[in-house]
């Protein structure tokens, strides 16, 4: 029989620095992001004013080495998960507008060749956010997420890529793309493609949720690139499963932030909404549904923090990250649905933000890369 004992107890208390960062980002999410979430959805992108404020947070350049214009301040996975949770409390689309360049810069910092770092990281430090589009999301459901919907032929002097990637944010503003592709041997890696590469075609796509984030699909047809355009260099191999696991912790942390927003909205609503001369929260069915949401959110929070803590201590976090992402995807959709249900007809209108949060939460189980820790 399998032993299900807890092998790695962890401390859930925030450090003073984590608490300060949490408070700052949570306030930013509530005061700067949430009030304009509807405007961003209508416009199909965040306002330039908000993007400027996001840049001023300096979260992207935090982990970039000083040699490339960054701050070179190491952040543990738990701190990053807390930051993503706090940002998503404001709005998931807007949080991903910041989390995606954060993840892309981190990937290049950790895995890029010296030439790639010089070329790509300096632009982040100069204020750019979207010059590199991240293409990890597959265009179709596959049995193994670590296998890309883009194939790469590495047998010749040039690399040839074919396939499709979807859900690429700010693709129109990018000058290059970081695309995951799988070779004939089954190994997945990342490749840097210039936007003007022959055979690369960009198509804007509209999704059910995340409408405040401009998303596109990229089709690659016999795209030929140099061997040096493989991230890290021709002979470099990335631990792609670990990259996916880190991304899943980040996406789960953002799901947690949105779910907490739903709960914090429906509790006062059910206490103030009167039907048959009493608050609807007096009804057992309503009270139990709210309690279930609170229980599920607390479970999600502990799973996210544990997955991040396992990564921080250098333990194998694949299982925990996978379980956490599965839990966040399933219960995130349930909490969004329950939030709409508790508001009744109001939950189906734009008058309240719960329907927006519901639609955005549907993306948690679909998008592999919206964040990373």
Account of the 3D structure:
By secondary structure, this protein is α+β, with helices and mostly antiparallel strands. It folds into three domains: 16-128, Butyryl-Coa Dehydrogenase, subunit A, domain 1 (Orthogonal Bundle), CATH 1.10.540; 133-229, Butyryl-CoA Dehydrogenase, subunit A, domain 2 (Beta Barrel), CATH 2.40.110.10; 240-361, Butyryl-CoA Dehydrogenase, subunit A, domain 3, CATH 1.20.140.10. 47% of the residues lie in helices and 15% in strands. It is built from ten helices and nine strands. The chain has helices spanning 16-33, 37-43, 48-56, 77-88, 92-111, 114-125, 240-272, 284-312, 318-343, 354-361; strands at 132-135, 150-153, 158-169, 176-183, 188-194, 200-205, 215-226, 274-275, 278-279. The strands form two sheets. Strands 1, 2, 3, 4, 5, 6 and 7 form a seven-stranded mixed beta sheet that branches. It has a two-stranded antiparallel sheet with strand order 8-9. A hairpin with a 2-residue loop joins strand 8 (274-275) and strand 9. Helix 1 runs parallel beside helix 4 (77-88) and helix 7 (240-272) packs antiparallel against helix 8 (284-312). The two termini are 33 Å apart. The model has no long low-confidence stretch (mean pLDDT 92).
